[in-house]
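Readers of this paper often ask what the protein records in our data store actually look like. An entry from our holdings is shown next, in its original layout:
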Amino acid sequence: MYNYLNTKFLLKVFFLFLLMSALNKVQGQTDSLLQTLLVDEKIDSQLIAPSKMLFTQQLVWGENGILKNRYGTNQDLVERRKIDLRIRRKMLQLHQIGGFVTLGGMVAQGIIGSQLYKGSYQLKETHERLGAAINLSYGFTAINGLFTPPSTFKRDKKLTSIRLHKWLAIAHMSGMIATNILGTQIENNVALKPYHRAAAYTSFFSLAAAMVVIKF
């Protein structure tokens, strides 16, 4: 049992090392998605006011959104969209960095959680505080992904890394919600522990996969 847990720990550390290496690479070059948004794609005047957005984007950047008059009424529409793209770039960078920070917290939480399951109840408060920190970093990451200004070009309907990233987002968000709900119930029903652990692993691996696929 000890060897099994030790192997799991080493695998998590190794995986985190790989992800942090990828983050260093991100700092040294422009992300391929962001480069596509700002360099490779020309702004088409037919698409500078996208009609298809996430409801969260509609809420902020849509025709009737909170920031519909963000640049006044006299500024050229193409210039407005260029500013939007620069905002989008920064938000997606924060989204990516937030994802790595959240993953790191999940690794630490997994280690502490396994010790708590084995009877080290003195770690309960640490586990709860770390869980709150992970929720905050995850929320920050989600906000920067969901509320970013929309892109200015139509995406292909074929399977892409961006589409996979979004599908995996549904998985890790569902896992996060389940982990938090089950976590509040375990004290009264210890039989929920395996389900809580399964939800946590689902969140971790789907978030990790989402961070990996976006790089390819």
